[in-house]
Amino acid sequence: MTQMLIGSILSNIPGFILLIIIIRQARKEIVPRKTLFLLILAGAVLIVPITGLQTVIGLGNTIPFIGEHPLLSEIFMTVLRLAFVEELCKFVATKWITWKGNYFTNTYQGMLFPAIVGLLFGIVESTAYVALSLATFPDDIWITVLMRMIIGAPAHGAYGILIGKYYGKAKLATHQDNQVLKRKYFWLALLIPTAIHGAYDWLVSSQIFKMGDTSIMMIIVICLDVLVVIYAYILLYREKNKKQTWG
Asked: Exposure winner among 6, 120, 157, 200, fewest CB in 10 A?
């Protein structure tokens, strides 16, 4: 129990720090406390519908056409079942809570909202990973903790920021009465983070792609994901200074 508690806290320290910073920025943007609470709650409970959807979609791997083709099976199980479902749920939750809010007045806010949802989801997911690792591979618990510190909540927050980069632009397009551009940005808000997230999930778990020293390849893939995470938070910082306003 002590290991579980310590492991959960350590694995989520970066996520909690980022969450506090982003919530403070949202408060400076005059986002209502009720909205922030709903975003936090949504991120925390998304694990339930996401797990359910991933379980159901995973049954598709038993379809002969999919299961008998290794590459198709891997992409189906990582890009579609894992990445697409998670990013879709973050997007839907963010839109449901914030889209019609009269406080939603600039593109910077559009990046903050899904970042909050993503960070909370990542925190819950990291806690679950630590618990699962402790139950199945107790000797590797601290490796799991370190990995989740680096690519757990911070990565999910970064994918949320990438959703928000286009989500905010879609809202701007709505105020410009440009429905074509709005639909385009909605699709980009979903597909861009799904592609990046899915590529990471596939590369770290693929049995086809593994060549040579798998530990070196794993380090390279993780480093690339870390660069994406850093880039996303730089985008958020830059958007703060050049945000487009319509309210």
From this structure: 6
CB-count burial class (<10 Å; 0-12, 13-18, 19+) for 68 = exposed
Long-range own/partner contacts, residues 101-106 (CB < 8 A, 24 or more apart)? 101/32, 101/35, 102/247, 103/29, 103/30, 103/31, 103/32, 103/35, 104/171, 104/247, 105/245, 105/246, 105/247, 106/29, 106/168, 106/243, 106/244, 106/245, 106/246, 106/247
Cut 0.85: pTM above it: yes
Task: Give me 199's structure tokens.
Answer: 């590529």
For residue 154, the one-letter residue type is P
> What whole-number distance in Å separates Cα of residue 184 and Cα of residue 154?
27
Q: Which residues contact 236 (CB under 8 A, 6 or more apart)?
A: 22, 108, 111, 112, 115, 161, 164
- Contact (Cβ atoms closer than 8 angstroms) between residue 110 and residue 169: yes
pLDDT in tens, 32-57: 999 999 999 999 999 999 999 999 99
- Cβ(190)–Cβ(216) under 8 Å? no
CB of 197 closer than 8 Å to CB of 86? yes
